[in-house]
Amino acid sequence: MRLVLCAVGQKMPAWADEAYEDFAKRFPPEMRLELKAVKAEPRTTGKSTEQLMAAEALRLDAACPKGARRVVLDERGERVTSKQLAQRLEFWRGDGRDVAIFIGGPDGLDDSIKSSADEKLRLSDLTLPHAFVRVLLSEGLYRAWSVMEGHPYHRE
Question: What is the CA radius of gyration of the chain?
Answer without folding.
Answer: 15
